[in-house]
Amino acid sequence: MITLPVRPAVIAGILASCASLTPGRAAAQPPPGPRVVQAAVSEPRTDPVRDPARRAVFVVGDSTVKNHGPGEGWGDYLTPSFDGRRIQVLNWAMGGRSSRSFIEEGRWQRVLAQLQPDDFVLIQFGHNDQRELTTDRGTIPEIGEASQEVLNETTKRLTTVRTFGWYLRQYIRDVRSRRATLILLSPVPRNYWRPDGAIDQVMLQHATITSQVAAAERVPFVDLHKRLVQIYTALGRDRVTSTFFTVGDSTHPNAAGAEIAASAVIDGLRELTATGLGPYLEPTALRSLTTKPVTWARGIEGQRKADLDNGYYLNPIIAGDHPDPSILKDGGDYYMTFSSFDAYPGLVIWHSRDLVNWQPATATLRENVGSVWAPDLVKHKGRYFIYFPARTATYRSNYVIWADDIRGPWSEPIDLKISQIDPGHAVGPDGRRYLFMSGGHIVPLADDGLSVAGEMKKIYEGWQYPSDWIVEGFAQEGPKIIQKGDYYYQVLAEGGTAGPPTGHMIVAARSKTIEGPWENSPYNPILRTQSPAEAWWSKGHGSLVEGPDQRWWVVYHAYENGFYNLGRQTLLEPIEWLEDGWFRVAKYDPSRPIPKPVPASHERHGYEFSDDFTSDKMGVQWSFYKGTVEDRARYRYDNGALVLRAKGKSPADSSPLWFVTGDQAYEIEVEIEADPAATAGLLLFYNQRLYAGLGFSAKNFIMHSYGTERPGAKPAHVGQHLFLRLRNDRHIVTIDYSVDGKRWERYDRGMEVSGYHHNVGYDFLSLRPALYAAGTGEVRFRNFRYRALP
């Protein structure tokens, strides 16, 4: 059976969509004893007509799939989720039909007459199979080959009735004989509830038989029954009844109920990676899942986190500025690092077991070699390497650091003395090592990976996007190489990483040899922001990895629409490998919940930003802006205080301490005690040209805005010991101060900081909480507090 473990179907979008609905009257409970199931009445109708120019999805079932009465069927809500240009959805289901009667009345033969090779057939039966065997519909509720002669109450003739499993196998045989793909679905549950508040799973027997047949015959299976039971259970009887069903009918849902069932079907189809159906699914979710916004879960200190704790996650997986992700699978562990640009210590490695929840492990780079751009984290013959470009105002090159333990110690950087940017490590069939570089270049490495072993040459021209696309520039960069089957696959970025939101993109190429020729993917671009209306801008710079669920995933970066100053954040999407050997994203909307690779995982994510300065979090959290070796000696910890030696004249040249946050709104607070000749303060810092906040010296308050200093006299009661609190509520900044940490006063200047970002100030950074100490002497920082705001 081609299937994946069922994700818990308490879909976050459904819960959000239903959160404000008023509970209604509960469904009437069925009387004890045998249940009498009222079948829907179907009027004669014209058969669906297929378009021979497109592939087709045939939907076969009963009135829960297609209904002509007051209820609705989920089969009528599938079409928006498919690419109608390339595939057609034909709903052949009819009310009152069972797996037996659909065949015996000749309806199945009419489906087969239209079925073509490579088509798809979705089949869900069970409700009418529960009827008495003497009717036209009933089947024996077993999986085997049993049969029974009965007197049909309508025709008054002896009729052979077989098992439910037998009829399902007949559908499978017929579809296989026509070289099409059949997908079995378990029947939707009825809206029956037990006195203890649990769903009365009266359809469980037929759901189980469907699952058993799918497993025995090795056909794809979607456990629709289980998915909907979990959704109904999460919402409760009253809400399910008032929202999803019509009065007096516990079998046939209304439009909202049919749409929820269709959403569960589409979720299940997306998870079936070997059917070939995935490329025809649209990325947008059904309307019922998008009518209300879905928000993130809240983790440590209220920080937003991706894991929704219901089997789904909501991007980004690592919020805040974590650009150019490079990911490494190492047994059951995953490690990822990012461009650190002007932060030292830099190149922080994060760790995960489930691809969704991550924690920082260590900072690997301590010597300042310039602004650090897109790295590549790899493991080769038991040793770990990070290759990365770095540049100063006068020198540009690429470097490598290495370690025998990924948590360190890491070597000092080794200059490879090569041009271009964004190295991507690869190993040829003969074991030789290479770096792929921007612009389609390649350079051989020495066996130890610590020096180059030949000249750089160009081997790939890239993929040319249409000339009318709005991009920042061609910018062929970020090559990442994987080997799968007979091919090397190159995943790279084009279009420019910032600028217009539609510019950046992920493209792919493949070759049977390291040096080419490289063939561009027919599915290019693999990923791209199509419109400024999307939630994520400038999607690009991807790395592929095989997940713990044996599926493949892509991590990439993107800017959040409306929060450009948070930098490029890390997102995760599933990909699917196609029959032609290419891959593409699995058509999920990255702004909506996506099933987790490990549904039941509950790993810890992130860490506390609050710091009492009793332990050293330098590198893992704090880093110096453009820090040098001298900055290592500027700080020390002393009895619960971070003591920082002053440097420079203002935040611009004082190398502030900063850290990355990914929350849209937050509040920070710190206690500061400064020497008489020192100036200190609390900031939101982008770079030396853009920062905002409040500082103080012996005589003045210094307002920092737009990267400028505006001193003004301090109140008489304010000395060199001060508490500062800064609130950034979705770009609106307010500041309060206190001399004792109890009675707070508002500083009379608010600010708006939405424009503190790369497209204004360059440098590919983000706006970050920061501490600074300028002038001479020392500054003591105590009790730094962080709190994310709702």
**Biggest sheet: strand arrangement:** 13-35-38-48-40-41-42-43
Radius of gyration: 31 Å
User: What best-fitting shape do the alpha-carbon axes yield?
Assistant: globular
Oligomeric status? single chain
Count of extended strands: 49
Strand content: 25-35%
Low-confidence stretches: 1-13, 15-44, 284-292
SS-based class:
mainly beta
Largest sheet: 8 strands, antiparallel
- The separation of the N and C termini measures 44 Å
Characterization of the model:
The chain is mostly beta strands. It contains 9 helices and 49 strands. Strands 13-35-38-48-40-41-42-43 form an 8-stranded antiparallel sheet, with no helix packed on it. Helix 4 runs parallel beside helix 5 (204-217). The model is unreliable at 1-13, 15-44 and 284-292 (pLDDT under 50).
